[in-house]
Amino acid sequence: xxxxxDAPQPxxxxxxxxEIVANLRQLLDSHDPLIITFHERSQRxxxxxxxxxxxxxxxxxxxxxxxxxxxxxxxxxxFRVEGFHDGVRIAWDCNSPLTITEVDGHRSYRGPLPxxxxxxxxRNAFRAALKLSQLVDVTLDGTHIKGNGxxxxxxxxxxxxxxxxxxxxxxEERLQxxxxxxxxxxxxxxxxxxxxxELRHLHFEERINTTFAxxxxxxxxxxxxxxxxxxxxxxxxxxxxxxxxxx
Length: 247
Fold this sequence. Notes:
Number of strands: 17
Strand content: 35-45%
Strand order of the largest sheet: 1-10-7-6-2-3
Oligomer: single chain
Largest sheet: 6 strands, antiparallel
């Protein structure tokens, strides 16, 4: 159903400063969220790359969310950083102490560039974007949703392994990166009910008062997998037909 070129690639280890800086700058320029995990601690924290300095061979990370992760940095505890850019997983370990600084009133953590970065093309399927006139209604719910009631939004794009959606307003406080939510639903024509998803991306865009969330499907049943693949294939065919009509 999908091209062989869409198959997942084995991870690469980047160890030249040029490659490492280029990939960290991609995370910086796209404002891609990072997941930070400290060794032997289960809690996950969110941050962003806020500066990459080739002259001083340093990288700076934004203040962690939740803020209490900062005490682990003060203790000099090693941690792992994981980000996603266009379906590519970019990850590295930080074993060196970081300096906590404030730039223009914003806290950040600066340290040396990583000696190596894992670059892994994870996406294993065509990712199909939905037309604005065809956005599917979605609901995200589960025991770990904070606040009252389920979150209701719109599906923006989808692949065989995950999807992106949007919610009106700022709902970042109600969600936690890395958390699995057991009741994701998508309306017709997709028609998914109570699918488990893991939250991989979360970003509030203040300018348009919208929160964007990216999830990876978790423990899909065969029936749900077939529904998703059929829907993606249908969107893929429509996209190709639309491209041909442009010429």
